[in-house]
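Backbone Fold Data
Goal — fold tokens
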Amino acid sequence: MSDRKLIDLVDITKQYGDSVVLDDLNLYIRENEFLTLLGPSGCGKTTTLRIIGGFETPDKGKVIFDGKDITRLAPNERQLNTVFQKYALFTHMTITENIAFGLKIKKKSKQYIKDKIDYALKLVNLDGFGNRMPDSLSGGQQQRIAIARAIVNEPKVLLLDEPLGALDLKMRQDMQYELIRLKNELGITFVYVTHDQEEALTMSDTIVVMNQGYIQQVGTPEMIYNEPKNAFVADFIGESNIISATMVEDKLVNILGANFVCVDTGFGRNQPVDVVIRPEDIDLVKPEDGIIKGRVTSLIFKGVHYEMEVMANGREWLVHSTDLSPVGSEVGIRVDPFDIQIMNRPESEDEEVVTIDEP
């Protein structure tokens, strides 16, 4: 991934009737970056993708592509291709004819088209499938053909709108690795839309978390997961214990009446804050060794770990651990200072929706 901006969305606003879908959105995408737009239904991620692709026009703002304003350009005049969740393959055409469709419109030579088809089929691991019909392929194979059809046009950017949503879990996981491989081999920019947090964490160089038409946070998968900027991001990306607390002073926070050492500074003295602690970062120890004591109230075996709920100081704590503590047992709770994430507490629900600057 280079540091050069390829796409710059400037002050983008989009409204449908009385509903504001995007509100003054600003975002840039780097060359060769795998950037994922992540958020719940209705957050504006697909609208953002469609504006980049030229399928929607913003009410306000500009789309800058490689230094040029393309806001009003039609989709076929942009150096990008889109792969949708519904693959939109032509069912009456062979795989070869599907892939060749865009190249024939561009009046490319027969040899050029043949070479491109051979290259694309090898790239998506479907060499020899050219004479097959789309309905004879599995969902994952159809998805790869849709990608092959897009990449033969040599786009600078590939837009993918929930392309794995119709696949089963195993096939979806396989395709995630295929997309990473394709991105690395092709050296082009991927802009990916999903509501699946695991998908975003697995594939992305950069994740853009969106909600209610605003960007909540932009960062690497590690940054988004380990250092959420607000309660929405913390709750949306994985499971979390989000607890109201008081920042006693720098590097000391009072959680449910007990003082925990942390590493955060700059929140003031005796200030209300929110604390995020991931379930896997809680250590269950002997009661006398814990900062607070609790009792296990629930236990579920999840395969790679046990999921437990522990009632401690009047609150249920969600804990993931490879060590079993039976229901009813008394335990102590400890958390490493680096695993306690402090956030400013919003004064209202509206304040939770804020634009976060890119890293």
